[in-house]
User: Fold these one by one.
Assistant:
Number 1:
Amino acid sequence: MAAQVEETRPFILDDEQASLIRRQEIKKKVQKAGLLGINTVVMLVVLFPLLYAVSMSLKSPGEVYSSTFRLLPESLQLSNYADAFAVAPLGQYIANSFIVASLITVGQLVSGALAAFSFQFLESKGKEIIFALVLATLMVPGEATIVSNYLQIGQWGWLDSYRALIVPFLTSATTIFLFRQFYKSFPIALYESAKMDGCSNIRFIFQILLPLSKPAIGAVSVNAFINAWNMYMWPLLVSGSDRYRTVQIGVSMMNSVDSQSVVLMLAGVVIVLIPSLFIFIIGQKSLVKGLFAGSVKG
Amino acid sequence: MELNQPLLDDKGNGIRKKRGKKKCSIETYLYLIPALTIFFLFTYLPFFRTIYRSFFLTDNRGIERVFVGFQNYTDLLTSSSFQNSLIVTFQYVAIVLILGMGFGFLTALLCNRTFPGIRLFSTVYAMPMAVASSGIAMVFSILLNQRIGALNQILGTNISWLADPRWALISVAVLTGWLNSGINFLYFSAGLSNVDESLYESASVDCANTWNQFLYITLPGLKHISFYILVINVISAFQSFGQIRILTSGGPGESTNVIVHDIYRNAFVNFRFGLASAESVILFIIVGILTVFMFRTQRKEN
């Protein structure tokens, strides 16, 4: 090999080679442009329902009933959004959803980080059996226990309260699994030396482990918040009054409040969609990393 | 926690291990208490209560009154309504699978090679996973509206997508497929990026064309993950509720009355909690079996 390198002469392209390379480059460019074109079309198809919702929410009520399709509104009726807030207590709904989703997220982070710490760093009898029991909860779909949960919460007098909306979701097997998976790559020596220095477990978790677990925290938060924000069936059953109604239920009830005002309903829908999409867009990277750290390794 | 201090400062490994285990074990469980309490109260307890209740006739507040053995189950399995519900669910799941996975796969393929703007496109393709099923269902209720909806206007048709039994199930399934395509895109993308790059290189040395590369390298490389995605999709499709309640409420007739919606109807409209519990158990059995499948393939992956 070394001899060959020495013999290399100054590299000069003859015309044929140059044109070959140029053709290759053009081919690549055409491919890329084609890819870009196809992707643009597919992207518009994916986005269509969302764009349609935004566009309809900005039309005047009269324009909605026109019989020909026009994506862009004739004039932007931003007042629809203000009207939507006037028709239904949207502000209260949004606040409720934020309270519920934030507390669920925090709860899942804390309970998940603690449980995963115990599973990964501490020794005990039956640890793996308990871990299996945790994962087994993934097999029980929430819809299969929803009847019992509803009756149980009714017996406790919890119906129509924040407790009912929040407490059942304060932990999740997925969260514990993601945290444990992340801790697996954590150098155990760091834990042992911290213990040598007399650092208690709880201090280790909050001062060393969690600050170093930002990717896992990011993924779990995004996932938990979006899921909690988008919940439908459970809040539908347990929140009966405007005081505790979440925004998904509140907006879906605008459906029946006033059948004339399609525009107001869609304005409501757009308002509901924005927070989860916003969080998804900022958190997408960490979400993807976290989701695939544990589940898919090839 | 203070109790641990002297033991842990002690550098004699043997002592620490022997005695530390005993001391630690209580602490170990302390960290598990928050999570396990929630699981116990809101998953395990209701789960066993559901099984228990499924053997009873209940009053309209859900309290078990008369023990009837397996009667709820035999009633269910022989009722044409539940049989219809099962058939509808399987049809629905099949359509959701084909559309959701097909679209996820297509978009993942489109983003497999880099090109300008790829990050924008992949964000958009993954986005449906963050969209609420109820919110987008309301958009579809307008989009599919016979008179003012965009679909009829664009296609120049006059179909009542949601009120025609032939179209209602397909319409709802299309929406769910759209919702699932986001996460499927991510899974397929991960799968594609795991296919061994060197295989493609040696293939292009051997002058294999793109189609053959796709057929003999890409597809086999995706075998395991595809099965995993399939199971995840089946499970999530079985659990759909919001979009169905908002778009069709199980109708027209019972043409979109999937299992979860039927549970909802039996429990919270007809107040037949025992029957709904038996139905929940059947749903659990189906989803449980599928989840076991999923864990198995996941273990194979690792």
Number 2:
Amino acid sequence: MKHLPSERHTLSIMVDNEAGVLARIVGLFSARGYNIESLTVADVSDNHEVSRITLVTNGPPPVIDQIMAQLDRLVPVHNVVDLTDWGPHVEREMALVKVAGVGEKRVEALRLADIFRARPVDTSTTSFVFEVSGSTDKVNQFIALMREVGLVEVARTGVVAIARGAEAV
Amino acid sequence: MGLEIAGAEIVVQALTDLGVEVVFGYPGGAVLPIYDALFQQNRIRHILVRHEQAAVHAAEGYARASGKVGVVLVTSGPGATNAVTGITDALMDSVPLVVITGQVPTHLIGTDAFQECDTVGITRHCSKHNYLVKDTARLGPVLHEAFYIARSGRPGPVVIDIPKDVQIMKARYDKPGTISHKTYKPQVKGDLAAIEAAVDMLAAAERPILYTGGGIINSGPIASQLLRELAKATGAPVTSTLMGLGCFPAEHPQFLGMLGMHGSYEANMAMNRCDLMVCLGARFDDRVTGRLDAFSPTSRKIHVDIDRSSFNKTVRVDLTIQGDVGSVMEDMLKLWRARGHRPADLKPWWADIAAWRGRNSFGFEQKGDALLPQKAIQRLYEMTKAKKPIISTEVGQHQMWAAQHFGFHDPNKWLTSGGLGTMGYGLPAAIGAQLAFPGALVIDIAGEASIQMNIQELGTATQYRLPVKIFIINNEYMGMVRQWQELNHGGRYSESYSDSLPDFVMLAQAYGWKGITIEGPHDLDAGIQAMLDHPGPVVVDCRVSKLANCFPMIPSGAAHTDMILSAADEVGPADDDAKALV
């Protein structure tokens, strides 16, 4: 069943905000040979007891089911939602992109940044750092364009995601 | 209450409140305060093993025989790392344990202190759950929660790492009421609609089979009783995994014997040809399924398991029911009766099974003078069955022969390392079972290689006057390794000969045990009788045919229908894909 085509799924995992929980999740993925495309984690509760992990993985549907079941049985996991299966949801990631150059390349970088609604958050006479956010595809495209105008380095947050509508998942 | 007491005293008090009677352990620097607290009380009995791995296996044997949670106490560093094999074994076989490890004081954690290791890091993926307790006030709640997690849902080992300063600091301890957990809530009751569907499928099946496993044992003796009722109501044949042996009586006409790699021909053929498979507390292990794409190709499959992650892991099933297998079988029976179902006409199905049974796949032929290992185990069974013995094993050929030729009639009588396959399991497990049932006949059926992996535990049995019996099937080979070398590696016996064996009789005597040698068929019965007649612990060195192999066998990578029944129909050398399988 591992020969079925792979799908990309975005999971939202609510966990106890305790030492070792992240290691437990990541270790489960490495021990069982599952993929992690991106992972973000932060405390999201007012009493600092619950963290939300957004994890993007890929695999054939039966493997995704296994991932859900394996995560769900970990003691510190409150709940796991497959947002891709759940339905309409918003996915965003943010990147900080450093480009260096002078003259026409510098101007072009600014022009492209404007089209992507990327904001310069640091500048020197020979460089910019742009903050860009959006879907993974948009961020990828922006980075690809920046390669042509003097890309130096990139830092990305990975995907955060939330369901559309009034309800919490 | 209300008084503050030391962390070590909280540990002992909580264990007492949890009804713990026996703790298996080994002292060391980082657990001295707990050992001191144990010294000053007389409600909990501490069993001093000779190696921490054995403490965990002994606790496993105790837990599997008694249905209670096994408790282990070891020190930091090497104490904890030595326990890891046992903890992993308990995770694979779903054995409820609480393992308490000492740790260096909190201010030294992370400094590479003497006998420090990252116990929670090391055990994170081989335990059901683990804790590092940094606050003495948390000790009581954590201990109670740990027992709840260990024994509920799919049981497993829980590790509690306690730094030494936490054992010394004082805090209040209050005995908690009912334990619940804010996120961990195992599902016990099965979904009724799904159970109804399962009952209808069972009633309509022409070739049903009940494929049972260790989950039925874990569910408690009532589940084994319910299985017997379900088998009676439906008339369906029953097979069992290695871990489930005893959940259904071995000599019952509906029992097909163990299935899988060394299971019976009739069990594997019935699994292959059935039209409905009802998996009750088993998990489609690779030793059971053989080649996956040829596994029971025409059946519909129902899977009952308390652990959702067991569903569709390797085999796709048609209907899943998450819940305790005992509770689900109870609901199945209620519905079956409420709907007035009768057993379908299964005569043609039983006729097929009778034909497969006719192959007598567990049969063996005595040739020459050497004692066949199968014969030795068969006689051991016949001569002891009236005493309803508890049997443990090590891992290898002797384990499979014991599963094939020793009959089990009741749950909790069969202690073996199934998932992890841990050599050295049997002797400590037998010690644990003997502590749970001091009056029972407990026999470790061992191999001469496996027994040496925890042979030091002879001393533990001596110290506590435990009349454990060890029955060594001695063929002077790591037999299962040799068998695979024969099948897959051209008979090149690389390092599988048991050279320089000790004189087991003298070794037994050195530890204060009785030692008996069985040389061949002529003194087999006398040897077994002498073992049974001796009130104390006995090692029997039973010399058997050196080159006997364990059949029937599904070779690695083969289908159920491609069983080798005897050495005569051995196939040619395996291809590389098959060789790569374990």
